[in-house]
Design brief:
Blueprint lengths: L14 H14 L5 E2 L11 H12 L12 H15 L8 E4 L2 H12 L5 E6 L4 H8 L3 E6 L10 H7 L4 E7 L11 H12 L5 E5 L15 H4 L7 E6 L12 E4 L2 H12 L7 H12 L3 H21 L15 E2 L20 H12 L1 E2 L1 E2 L9 E4 L4 H16 L3
Parallel strand pairs: 1-10, 3-4, 3-5, 5-6, 6-7
Antiparallel strand pairs: 2-8, 7-8, 9-12, 11-12
Helix pairs in contact: 2-10, 3-10, 4-5, 4-9, 6-7, 11-13
Length: 400
């Protein structure tokens, strides 16, 4: 009898975490490494949020809380959805988890049965397929190629839906591509979903506030109110407020689903950190100036990275609408050999050679379901990004 679960054999460790760990190991060994793999802002958590956490500790708010969030945070989340998205939810329709990932996973565990299908546009965040597999479902991928801005069409979504489809996972702006769907593009998808009432919508709006230029964020239940009763609108404080380590994610949706999610959480982690919850209350209710400041920095970095990558031989990098990622194609590099003698057969080999020969750590595209590409997180300093892109240019120039 095998000791490890058969279910565990269906999934793989997170490639993004693996790249970050590899870069850290090389740095510790004395190698000059620039890590562009981690998806977290390099800015500090705003002072007012840190002060709120300290005040919570001093006030003794360090005990167990309600499993899926304190009333004050649920109220703040409801206010946020109303203020920023025009969506009306009650606290009973809100769940708070230990990061956005737990909220998504809880929802899948609470709803999926063997044979249930989940449609996932590719390129996708690396965790979506594996969470579906862990929950007993079957991921179904729909590719959004570079030619369409890494976005899928309504026709593609329609073709992917079957009687077994239970969820459609929607992430805009996207990790890894930064692609954002405008209202018209999203309406095309919601029109399809309205024709298939058995399909539920799980939105991952984590990068909502990181949009650039004149792009305007919108979320499915906002664009199509007819989807309100079968949409789980997910978000969190990690990216917008530089609170990745605080581990607070949240979602709102139909009360029966929220109750089921709470049931899963009650028998796994129980409540998120009480201190982090009080910090999140301040993040949502307090001054929002930080968001505009960080957005401006990220937009500047995006423009820098896209310009420099498009000067590299064999690389094409579209201009993303949001998040803090770019997802360039290396189609022009495939089949060539690096200066150190490595034959570039695919994007994983490219990323490995790039790290070993130049010290630049990126994540290969196959991890996100669309190749040949790689992902750069530009959530680091302008100086580090400039040097990393210069090294990438030199690496590509050395291919022959």
């Amino acid at each position: 009898m095998a000791f490890l679960s058969d279910t565990l054999a269906r999934v793989k460790p997170s490639p993004t975490i693996a790249v970050t760990q590899k870069a850290a190991e090389l740095k510790a060994a004395g190698k000059d490494v620039i890590g562009l793999g981690a998806g977290e802002p390099d800015f500090d958590t705003p002072q007012n949020i840190k002060d709120a956490a300290k005040a919570a500790i001093d006030a003794g708010k360090t005990k167990y809380t309600a499993v899926d969030g304190i009333p004050e945070l649920k109220k703040a989340i409801c206010a946020k959805f109303k203020r920023e998205n025009g969506l009306d939810y009650t606290p009973a329709q809100v769940t708070v988890g230990t990061g956005g990932k737990q909220v998504l996973y809880n929802a899948l565990v609470a709803t999926l049965n063997p044979g249930d299908e989940v449609i996932i546009p590719a390129p996708y965040w690396v965790s979506y397929p594996d969470m579906v597999l862990l929950a007993g479902g079957t991921p179904v991928f729909v590719e959004g190629p570079m030619q369409t801005g890494y976005k899928i069409t309504g026709e593609q979504l329609e073709a992917a839906i079957t009687p077994n489809t239970k969820w459609f996972i929607f992430n805009s702006p996207s990790n890894p591509s930064g692609a954002g769907y405008n209202r018209a593009e999203l309406k095309e998808l919601t029109d399809v979903l309205m024709r298939h009432p058995h399909v539920w919508v799980m939105t991952d709006d984590m990068y909502e506030h990181l949009v650039f230029g004149d792009f305007e964020f919108c979320t499915p239940a906002q664009v199509e109110p007819g989807l309100y009763d079968r949409t789980l609108t997910c978000n969190g404080v990690s990216k917008a407020y530089a609170m990745t380590g605080w581990r607070i994610g949240y979602a709102a949706g139909p009360q029966a689903l929220i109750k089921a999610i709470g049931k899963v959480q009650s028998q796994s982690t129980s409540n998120p950190s009480s201190i982090s919850q009080w910090a999140a209350v301040e993040a949502l209710n307090g001054p929002q100036d930080y968001i505009a400041d960080s957005r401006a920095a990220f937009e500047r970095r995006r423009n820098l990275v896209v310009a420099m990558l498009n000067e590299a031989e064999g690389i094409r990098c579209p201009m993303p609408e949001g998040a803090f990622y770019v997802y360039p194609s290396i189609a022009g590099c495939i089949g060539k050999t690096s200066a150190a003698g490595t034959k570039i057969t695919d994007d994983e080999v490219f990323a490995t050679a790039l790290l070993e020969e130049t010290g630049v750590a990126v994540v290969f595209g196959a991890a996100f379901g669309l190749s040949p590409n790689f992902r750069i997180s530009y959530a680091t300093s302008d100086e580090a990004l400039t040097e990393a892109c210069r090294r990438i240019q030199d690496f590509c120039a050395g291919l022959n």
